[in-house]
Write a structure and sequence with these properties.
The protein is built from 14 helices and 9 strands. The protein is of the alpha+beta class. The chain folds into 2 domains: about 70 residues; about 300 residues, Aminoglycoside 3'-phosphotransferase, Chain: A, domain 2 (Alpha-Beta Complex), CATH 3.90.1200. A hairpin with a 6-residue loop joins strand 4 and strand 5. The model has no long low-confidence stretch (mean pLDDT about 90).
Amino acid sequence: MSGVLDAALLATIVTLFTESGKLHNVTARDQRITAEGDGYVSVISRVVVEGRDATGAERTYDTVVKAPLPNIDVRKNVPLTLMFERETLFFDRIIPKFNEVQERLAEEEKLYFPLKYFSSGEYLKEYIVMENLKSSGYKNANSDKQLDFAHGSVVVSTLAKFHALSFIYKTRFPSDYSEVTKQLTDNFMLSRRDYDASGVRKYGKRVFDKFINSLRNAEYKDKIVKAADNDYNTVLQDFWGNGTINVISHGDYWINNILFKYNKDVPTGAVIIDYQMARHSSLVNDLLSFLGTCFELELRRNHFWELIDVYYKSLDRFLNIAGYDINDFCTRDEFDKELRAQSFFGVAVGIFMISFFDTEVPEIQLLFGGDLPDSFDRPSPKFEMLANDLIEDYVSWGLL
């Protein structure tokens, strides 16, 4: 055993695999995936567990272990307690239903979810032990290359399957769906338990002011101020919870939470990871979140409406394969109306996330701590460029 993962947690993992009967003569070795400065609020490690199964054959489990940062003070600025509860709920209640409603589909049509082996919700000792998807050939998109249309198409078509499963889940198991979705409320903009949302709301106000001061076009600036109605945080919170065509949404749908399968560098499929921000909200919110935080200018600017079409056609196709009519959930006219009604959500999320794409960004727990230095308010050239590009695109699409 190495000292990368907390030694007690690593020992617990060995015990779990032993006592569950999965393995005996168990050993485990770990390798940190995330490190300080990466901007994560969880410790994520790869743990390879080896031993012998009930037949005596050698068996290896390649896993990813996710645990909160050990500093309890982080929980004041980031809702870690709520986030781990949310992800455990997703693994224990939602994924089994998603898998059940697509069990009769051909394997190549199904949306795959990582296996969860073990988890704990004990306060300050939370963890999730899950399948390492990278051992099955999934990869992050190459950060050194521009995100192209092929990747964008896979991203939105995968999201369409995710939302289609929500529609089917609601249709087949309405009582269970209602019970689960009542728990998928805001866990970010409101103070609850050990989490104080005042820091993130201070960040929201300052980043909004910084964004407005970065805009060159006075007319565009007026549009954003008017849309925000002098209270950016509340507007963002309202859009997160609003919608007339609601699904179980991912809630944090951006490129870091998507892994791809490739054939000769061409993406052929994807799997969605990290369910800590899942919530019940408009189906277009995830779509707008991805496009609002997709600062690959060529993809967003040249293919926005094409990607919208890919999403809706993929939603239609998956529901049809599963034996359902998309018009029973949302016609194209209803979808387009929802998209326009919720369109400012994409801008609002873009404003919120833009600092993460800027240079020299503080750790997220410091970003949301409420005590950012005065230098934070001065937009860098990159921040100004991203801000103006985002608004120019939304204006050109007729959504602002």
